[in-house]
């Protein structure tokens, strides 16, 4: 019986993970569930899965959850804050940690699990984007078992027959073909992009996901973060990772070998497949997902990405090129800009504008210490917030 902790249990990935676990209660038990503020949903999950621990990052939410748990007579212990998250992630009674917190908030709890040599199911790509070298060094040092959950990286992993390390050349791999659906604005006229709404940005044609990653998919920053994620996971240089637009999201990514073979993983656009794959690897378990009906799929299309339409993708390649803390800067500026867009403060095309301005305003440091990385994250957030205030003041003046 393996014991599982889910960081970010109330989110889209967290809920899909519980759906898969519910099919295999004879093999997995839920050790801990964590969330930020969604008390009702976490309480329902605790009632159903009876974990040893439940953690709410938000203190008030934790008090509310503790009340409900005690009234219901459940034995789940409630913790709060960063300490609570770290404690359950690193706990000796947990074997597997699903890292599914969104954004930089997931970095420290995920690293805590890495340092205890757990099996890490990595959905929280931002953690790896921020801390790439340190993260991978800690994985190797502590013998953690890192399994990619992001559908593309899970597809690449499967297409590499499950081996992560050693660089591409040693495994006879010429390049990685990272597929991208292009999101909801693949064909929207470019001059209309500045007027699109958060609702339109979150309406992804193929995937049902959390709001932040939905906006990232619409701007293709998600693909940019995934290029960085792939470079660390598979020890690949940026020029060995080619983004291929594939609007149907049936091929989840491919690997091209030196003998001319290209191996792909195909499936429904349903995150339960990569989650089940990472949970059970090297075995296979039912994910509750049906196979593909190739006759219904009919056609698979491929296009080159348009960097003018999607400047965020270009910025991500530039961040890799700049090296050091620049990827942490890119990620932090993006988090601030996406939140401002979701709150209706800025237009969609202000997202790349803010990120690029912040990247130009900071100095790059070596990403060799967590201190430097967290400092770069804070510096970029501050710079993005100041720029945002400047932009909002300007619009106010123009409106008056
Ligand atoms: P979501 O917004 O649906 O859920 C986020 C979860 O994180 C929630 O449980 C929330 O309570 C928790 N959380 C948010 N802020 C927190 C904080 N400060 N402290 C502690 N917990 C916090 O997001 P999601 O779509 O499930 O995505 C989660 C991660 O997985 C992201 O990094 C995303 O890029 C990645 N991912 C998601 C998908 C998908 O299909 N949704 C696919 C691939 C990768
Ligand atoms: Mg993905």
Question: Your description of this structure?
Answer:
This protein has 400 residues and is of the alpha/beta class. It folds into three domains: 2-148, NAD(P)-binding Rossmann-like Domain (Rossmann fold); 156-297, no CATH class; 323-399, Orthogonal Bundle (Rna Polymerase Sigma Factor, Chain: A), CATH 1.10.1740.10. Helix content is 48%, strand content 15%. The chain has 16 helices and eleven strands. It has helices at 12-22, 39-49, 59-72, 81-90, 107-114, 125-142, 151-159, 198-202, 211-219, 221-233, 272-280, 294-297, 311-322, 326-342, 350-361, 370-399; strands spanning 2-7, 28-35, 53-56, 77-80, 96-99, 119-122, 145-148, 173-180, 241-245, 251-257, 262-266. The strands form two sheets. A seven-stranded parallel sheet has the order 4-3-2-1-5-6-7, sandwiched between helices. A four-stranded mixed sheet has the order 9-8-10-11, covered by helices on one side. Strand 3 (53-56), helix 3 and strand 4 (77-80) form a beta-alpha-beta unit. Helix 5 (107-114) runs parallel beside helix 6, helix 6 runs antiparallel to helix 14 (326-342) and helix 13 (311-322) packs parallel to helix 15 (350-361). The longest helix has 30 residues, at 370-399. The relative contact order is 0.11. The model has no long low-confidence stretch (mean pLDDT 96). Bound molecules: nicotinamide-adenine-dinucleotide (NAD) and magnesium ion. Residues 8-14, 35-36, 38, 57, 100-102, 105, 123-126, 150, 207, 209-210, 212-213, 271 line the site of nicotinamide-adenine-dinucleotide. Magnesium ion binds next to helix 7.
- CATH topology of the largest domain, which one? Rossmann fold
From the N-terminal CA to the C-terminal CA, the straight-line distance is 65 Å
Structural class: alpha/beta
Sketch the topology as an H/E string, one letter per element: EHEHEHEHEHEHEHEHHHEEEHHHHHH
In terms of DSSP E residues, the strand content is 5-15%
For the residues shown, what is the average pLDDT? 96
Shape: globular
Number of domains: 3
Topology, number of strands: 11
Can you say what the CATH homologous superfamily of the largest domain is? NAD(P)-binding Rossmann-like Domain
Count of runs of 4 or more consecutive helical residues: 16
Name the hetero compounds present: nicotinamide-adenine-dinucleotide, magnesium ion
* CATH class wording of the largest domain: Alpha Beta
Helix content: 40-55%
- Roughly how many Å is the radius of gyration? 21 Å
Oligomer: single chain
